[in-house]
Batch of 3 targets.
Target 1
Amino acid sequence: MNLAATSLPAVSLSAMLRVSRLDLTLLWRNKSSLVTVFGLPVVFAGMLVPMKGVDMGGVDGALLQGTGHLGFFLVFGVLMNLVTVFTARREDLTLKRLRGTALSDAEITGGSVLTATGMYAVQALALLTVLGVALGGRFPADPVLVLAGLAGGVAVFAALAFALSGVSPSAELAQLTVLPIVFGCMLGAGVMFPLDDLPGWLAQISRFTPLSPVVEITRTGYFGQDFHDHSAHPSVGVLAGWRTCLPSFGVLALWAVLGRALAARWFRWEPRHA
């Protein structure tokens, strides 16, 4: 049975929090998941130190890559985490048993998304603190724009997690399922370097990866500079920043629609029967 076949009753926040608490309990018992969710972001944050003071596209290299990591952590905290959770719970019949309780489908899945979002928020706030305190950064020029970009990324990668969990045969192989997206986002989303450094045609294609618009919006909001239309990254005001990010929000919306369609087609509540 897939997501398209589920009903949408009223959702109880308290019920979602109960599911979220279960997720946290299971996470602390799974050492590999802990390393993926918390360890890898620490490693990537440590990689920023040598880039401090290096000019990249007119801005400090540590801050440029750090704002890219704000988006890239979505791959670990949301995508990889949720794919593993949904696949493991499907295969051990936990999802099937939960559907036999008073919980609605939205509450069962929403609780897990809530947990992943909360953990990602902790990672993002910690990285923003590191950028500002240790790496000479600043308070975001437009924090609302930064928040909107990251929230859109959570929605997109959560939808993709629903879909990819449906094609992951086991929890052990779930992380391998997302590896192509990990490498694609790392190399083609402007995380480590500006997309303007790529050949023109490749840069335009890369702007349509699911993470690229998140990075563009986050950097524009953080620096108060245009990171979408101009390689020189001129300063922009609040309204101009939102206006220049409209194409990026459009790409996010397209990925959200595609992710929802794939989730409706691929997500499964129980293992396939032989």
Target 2
Amino acid sequence: MNPEEQQEILKLRALNVTPKQIARKLGLKASEVTAFIKEQAEQTARAKAQTGELPPIDKCLADTRCAKRLLFEDSDSLQNEIGGLGLVLVARTTGYNRYSVCTYLLDYWCLGLKDTIGPRDFNSNKYLEFVQNSYMNFPQGYQEITLEQAQAIVFGAIDYAKSLGFSPHRDFEQSRTHLGEWNGESQLKFGRAGRPFYISGPYDNFQRVISTLEKTVGVGNFDYFGGFEV
């Protein structure tokens, strides 16, 4: 494979031409083209890692109900709210058919970041499988959003929870960088009907959460469901 063919491969690949199509066009073996593309992708990823630059975004996702509620304030979504849990997924391309993925489980009504996973590295098949498994408990499915929207949801929910006295999940420092830099100006509306609404989870310290809310926003200024009367 000569330098002219290599340049042509890179040009065609930038146009999203598949390795098999490139091979047929240039009269090369598909395996040769695939190996060259993979090597170039890995070299690019290594160079970016050395400079501290994050890999490019492949896609950002949010469960549909969360996206409608926070990003679009859909009236039907607001009327039929049954809980304030949402899941944001951010995937970055780290090489040829290689991806690094983080997820952020959010209580955007009260507690902020409840759980986070990643970064985890996957090939294309495992990546798609991970996405499907991540959203299997969200009956409305998921939709693609922008990185800026993902940042506004995650960082905004965390900041809202901090204003109520709650810290993000302890693993957030591991997945925080994956989101990239954020300007800290989320305009999204958190809470339910303008108030914190705490729904008790199986692993929560109910009494501690209620006590924290009483201190930060005052008795009668929040709603809750579950646990026991205080």
Target 3
Amino acid sequence: MSMLWVDVTDLLDYLGQHNRPSGIQRVVSELGRALVACVPERVRFVRRFAGPCDFETVSWQDMESLFAKTAEKVIAHGTVQTAVSSSDDAGPSIPPQGRFALIRESAAMQISTFRHLNRLADNLVSRVRRAVRHRSGQHHASLLHADSGGLLSELARPGDFFLVPGSPWDFADYSQTVRWLRDSRRVTFGLLIHDMIPIFNPEWCDRGVIASFTSWHRTVLPLADHVFTTSAATACDVQKYARQERISLPSEPVPIGVGAAFHRHTPGSGRPSHLPAPNSYVLFVSTLEARKNHIQMVRVWRRLVEERGAAHVPTLVFAGRAGWLVHDLMQQLAGMNWLDGKIRHIPSPTDRELAFLYEDCLFTVFPSLAEGWGLPVSESLAAGKPCLASGTTAIPEAGESLARYFDPDNAEDVFKAISETLDDPQALSEWSDRIRRTYSPPQWRDCAQRILDRTACGQS
């Protein structure tokens, strides 16, 4: 029986450094859950613990436990306006004691997450040590049924499939891992590429990311037996890059899509008091970074307030943690007093908070300049909410015909689209009804099956 080995090293590392999973990490976790649901007896998860050939198993139960630790940990309550990553990120109406409470809560959550990871790591290391000490045939057989701590070097078999679904670009020696898997273990290697933004849109990326991403793909992509992408647009970018680098791909990249599982809040659960009132706001779900184009929305909202008056303009809510290349944006927002409260920031919202935010908003916006998919667009539709989005890159694949699109570089186009939506509440209501009647959210299980169809692991 062939086994599918899924590398989750970068996912676990990310959760050790951040309060909540972001785009790629959410895709990896949901895809992993779907793979387990499809073929539970043929999917195992591993992470690297030392050199390029040193991988150990991690049980899905351990990972689910870690997800639960982070998914519903509230960063702060009250009138939270912004994240605590720097003094420039402070919102206009948080008193000093509130800011100290926010810092304490954030620090406590980080400590809790690290402690959980350390316990998991200690457990895995102890099992690896036992495996190294006891290499008898009987012990080797027992490892096949162990949840965590088994050595990939002992468990992998010819004909197995090794999948990299995340972003392990910091491992400059990853090509050594692939060569070891293919040449020594006779394992097929598959790679999921989320986007090629650091290569084709480097202006929106940190220079370190550009360097590591480019070098990693230049050395690893030529070794891939199968290449999967989140979208058809990304598949085209991969082929374009392969032509530029004269890389011969064994076959065309396979778009698997991205699911839109929307986690609704538990019926009867109380609405968090710090969230804005229902139907009083427009929602923008995304990490705050330059590529996501928050600055364009700030300009549009300022113009709306100037032309209509603050009382006639809904609040714009940014939901997501503060990322990179937004220092100037945060300074501008602080300087304008967050548009006197007409713009709010809810950092790292929990799944429960997100559910309420989606369900109670007027509509959502997603003006990103470049995406490998556009998860907030499909999540908005899954929640039955209209979305005004950028018409670039892969975003129309996520929104299909039910989202409406604008040119994210054209402030007048964005302003017009939002103004027309605000001016016609009847049309907005009909749009919402049409989404709820006709939208069929893409399923993570289908995404997983497209991968399994290319491997021997999904066959009986």
